[in-house]
């Protein structure tokens, strides 16, 4: 009976929801407009407020620091490269920032995160906004990696680099009824090729903060900012660094510049949305259209991207086509492990019921 009910709901609910959404859209748009006006009139005054920004040495983090500086906030700039932070500090002061504290730290290390939050509280006595902008992208297909050395680092920077500072700062943000601002990306729900690990990490970040939003309630605000493609040129490199930290990949060291104008526009939207108390900030907004297709017509979205990617890919030269036409030598697969990945307990005698009752995952 349950299977019949679910089958009927599968046929009825999606089209009915689309019809309801079509009729409700004008009313929802009006209510969102009214909400935006009210929030704009009651925007948070950041004068002398304390803002901690991770990944502040370049790109998105740097521009967000400048936007808070224009609002006369006190800043705590965090990155691994301290010498880059000194230049950002001087620019922020020129734009109107109050006191600016520079801290060299690695946000993928929990001890560093506890230290940077502790230093902030010791110096300023409070914390109002935590802005997590550190991010590490890549431009290679999953099978092109060659080895998995960089995989944990990608997940550490993009996921734990957000979680650890939040964990350390949350008690102080509760005390000040502050806000966490998160730098995510549209790839979290609109995955693109050559960004598989980046997309997975950003999806984990968004799910983490959406769950945390319900746990902290109204005591701490959370603004999740998602951006589309905001510029940059891979220049043959393997990694695209928003935070600007160096990353070694197959003996190469690459830093990829982002397009300044779009990064500045995105930073303005992030800070303005955070000060209004927006739960979500998106740049640009038209990417939301793909959410409807992904929910109700995923095949159409998949066909569209396959068509676009196939037409955008340049055809290989004739010499390459001849090489592809030749019979390929099958690549040697890795040898199976000497020991199984899962160790199961051996058969137990009735007298040894307590022995070997746990499964071990190596």
What global shape is seen? globular
Mean pLDDT: 79
The first-to-last residue Cα distance is 42 Å
Could you tell me the radius of gyration in angstroms?
A: 25 Å
What fraction, in percent, of the residue positions are helical? Answer: 40-55%
CATH architecture classification of the largest domain: 3-Layer(aba) Sandwich
CATH topology of the largest domain: Rossmann fold
Total beta strand runs? 13
CATH secondary-structure class of the largest domain = Alpha Beta
**Order of neighbouring strands in the sheet with most strands:** 3-2-1-4-6-7-11
Put simply, the count of helices is: 10
Query: Which ranges are low-confidence, i.e. pLDDT below 50, for 5 or more consecutive residues?
Result: 231-259, 315-331, 340-344, 346-362
Q: Tell me what portion of residues adopts beta-strand conformation.
A: 5-15%
Oligomer class = single chain
Structural class: alpha/beta
Q: Tell me the domain tally.
A: 2
